[in-house]
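tl;dr need the bound structure. longer version: we got a ligand (NG,NG-dimethyl-L-arginine) that a collaborator sent over and nobodys looked at where it sits. i said id run it. heres the input, straight from their email, havent touched it
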Amino acid sequence: MSTMSTRARGTALVRRPAASLADGIVTFIERQPIDLDLANRQWQGYVAALEEAGWRIREVPQDDSLPDSVFVEDTVVMFDGLAVITNPKAPARNPEIVATEKFVRDLGLDAATITDPATIDGGDVLKVGKRVYVGLTGSTNQAAVDQLTDLLAPRGWKVIAVPVTKALHLKSAITALPDGTVIGYAPVVDDPSIFPKFLAVPEEPGAHVVVLDKNTVLMSSAAPDSATLFIDRGYDVVVVDISEFEKLEGCVTCLSVRIR
Ligand SMILES: CN(C)C(=N)NCCC[C@H](N)C(=O)O
């Protein structure tokens, strides 16, 4: 179980589900009906879990015309104080960045943008220490890796391209524990040897964790065996049910952007 926190860990950007959520994109799985009321309750449970762990919540304004906008992670990636606004390839998703960019600039953050011909979704970016793994996927291309390298190398980050052919996004296949161990569901990881420390998890949703603090991760209730694995490694685990978002190929990371 998680421990309550009284100190703000940072700010978490979230975006309330659109009324059109059920029209969100599906690529690797079959479309299933979405229960919007349940999705809204699950989203509130997710936000409550972040708040309970000490995160201050800020909401990018909801937009019912953007079905996938709840997956706010895809629109911006934070590198210390720098907000990099992405450039989603999917025409239905690209307009999501407009409100995110305004929001982060209004918060007073420094912002940079990824521009054509580069395309990138935040779900393809995994930071581990000062390493930035960028998935080459159906959404993110080499031009985006090059633009990120130009932006980030002078700031001390090392950008590493990672082939991803079996999953929607890099972070559909892997994320990382607080100690930097990359966790992944082996059947959808192209090449685990890229990562200095790799731990295979027994369930696909078990590959997705949000680091709440150095001892605690947030993950889906759909991966109980992976949760046990993390608990055995000494972590506190907070679980949330996000089934309606998983039906749209979302995961726990996609639903927020953490500004530490
Ligand atoms: C790490 N992941 C998976 C994400 N950051 N984004 C999920 C986006 C899902 C959306 N229906 C789509 O297909 O774009």
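gonna send this back to them w/ a short note. The helical segments are 36-52, 96-106, 142-152, 170-173, 224-232, 243-246.
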